[in-house]
Amino acid sequence: xxxxxxxxxxxxxxxxxxxxxxxxxxxxxxxxxxxxxxxxxxxxxxxxxxxxxxxxxxxxxxxxxxxxxxxxxxxxxxxxxxxxxxxxxxxxxxxxxxxxxxxxxxxxxxxxxxxxxxxxxxxxxxxxxxxxxxxxxxxxxxxxxxxxxxxxxxxxxxxxxxxxxxxxxxxxxxxxxxxxxxxxxxxxxxxxxxxxxxxxxxxxxxxxxxxxxxxxxxxxxxxxxxxxxxxxxxxxxxxxxxxxxxxxxxxxxxxxxxxxxxxxxxxxxxxxxxxxxxxxxxxxxxxxxxxxxxxxxxxxxxxxxxxxxxxxxxxxxxxxxxxxxxx
Length: 327
Prior knowledge:
This protein has helices at 8-20, 46-57, 61-69, 72-79, 89-106, 115-134, 142-162, 168-175, 181-186, 207-210, 227-235, 240-250, 260-267, 271-289, 299-303, 316-323; strands at 290-291, 294-295. It folds into three domains: 8-134, RNA Polymerase Primary Sigma Factor (Orthogonal Bundle); 142-186; 221-323, Winged helix-like DNA-binding domain superfamily/Winged helix DNA-binding domain (Arc Repressor Mutant, subunit A), CATH 1.10.10.10. Helices cover 55% and strands 1% of the residues. It is elongated, with a radius of gyration of 32 Å. By secondary structure, it is mainly alpha-helical.
């Protein structure tokens, strides 16, 4: 039996706990502020739980609120296992209660399973997802963060069993290759380094001090530009028709890309002529943007500012010769 989630239940629990704790400001307990008088009661028995679910099915918000409040201590017991993380306990508790609410709306009391047993997985899963997002400067997907945790446990266990540091192949064998988890964990971001952190304990020099100052870098039109600016400059070295064909072919400045025959209809030329213009334009772009087989937008710096008369009529070979340092 699935009920509709009502977000105001969380606010109800928090407001109820605040009203029952008059000394909250004097003793700001991150868990105690979620505990109400009803939360201090024992969890409902199977008979009480069934009766409350029947009332919920009839639209009783009070029964729903009672089920949540009487399971808040379950959330607290799970949340305390994550108290060593850098995420505030208040956020962990709030996310755990959210998991409890999700479990409550997915739970079917007619199957004879205890709500606390079913809800524990949802509470833990919500908390782990929150920690995966908030504990690092870079958010890591939940499955990757759990894979990283699993890999660390596997490495520790293998180190104890083998008496040495395990190899990558030994770790991958234990993890399994079915989900390619080891490769995703390997490339997951690890610790971060602050630019303002001192390089040594006895030094005030930071990593930012070692980086080049802005005035030391040769000014380029690209410093304040973007990829679209780079492409606009590169396309300016093409003939008007070549530029128009590539723009329509690859959807540059258009909503969608076009086929060769569609471009031929627009330009009123043959499809073969469109193919020739496309090939010529791409060869020119490769000459302008490619260096040793790799994209290098710094090539444009060598061309911008030069007085190249009739540059749109130049062949790819002529553009390459201009950019060749040995020429």
